[in-house]
Amino acid sequence: MHVPGLMLQGQGPLWAGQDVWGSCAAAGQQSLPQSYPQSQPHTLPRYPAWMSQIAANAPSAPQPNGCAMSPGQSGPGDPGAHCASGAGAFGFVASPIRSYPQCEQSPDCSASDSVVPVEHASSQIWGVTLEYENLLNVQRDQHLATVRHMSAEASQLRQAVQMFQAGRYDEGFMAHSLRAKDEEMRLAVEAKQKELELFSSLLRVRDRQIGELQAQASDLQRRQLSSSRDDGAVSETLKEAFKQTEELRKEKVELERLLLVKERQMNAIQAVNPEMADSSALQLGAQ
User: Is the Coiled coil keyword given for this protein (predicted)?
Assistant: First the structure.
């Protein structure tokens, strides 16, 4: 993920096409000078690889007996049919070791199987989908605001070049140039506000991911302490969860640092033109 001064790393193919808004940028930048810097759209965080592995065992469809059918099952009549355990499509539904009520009054479910209720999985999947849809919308708004600012700045520079080439310094032309400069400053503030909003949204996602990883690590520790035998698989999963949590913490700290940098840039812009002061943008970091 390319963010100025930061490389956010994630796993999995969920958001492999992060440059979905690239066509918008191309349309707005065709008229810009070739030497003008191109804006790089922010990409979105992705969930760790172990969550994608959990998703491979996700329930795909409800069976008549109320159990979720795993990807390897052919139907309720399959001799090897059983209740699938795991998480939702995004690997984000629940911890793989968290137990749920057994399928009651079902001949296909063994007493030792733990299942994820279909309603619970669906609600969690919808929650994650809406969260990422909101991030995409914020990313789109931020990128379009940046394109508008770049276009206005390029237009203002072209007008200045035309003024110097023609040797025109009349009041009307100067007033038009000042209005163009004011519009450029307004768009710059708008672009910074959208960028702050995007960073704040990314921080909220990271906070949720850290909380879920910590919850999973706690569950694994409790299971490991209560187990009378050495469980190598649990130990490896616990180490992976701690590693992912530490990486997310580092990314969160870096995002907070970038957020402060952007706020300082906003303060510098507002110091040049106090009429454009907008405290709402500076409050985004505290949300």
Answer: yes
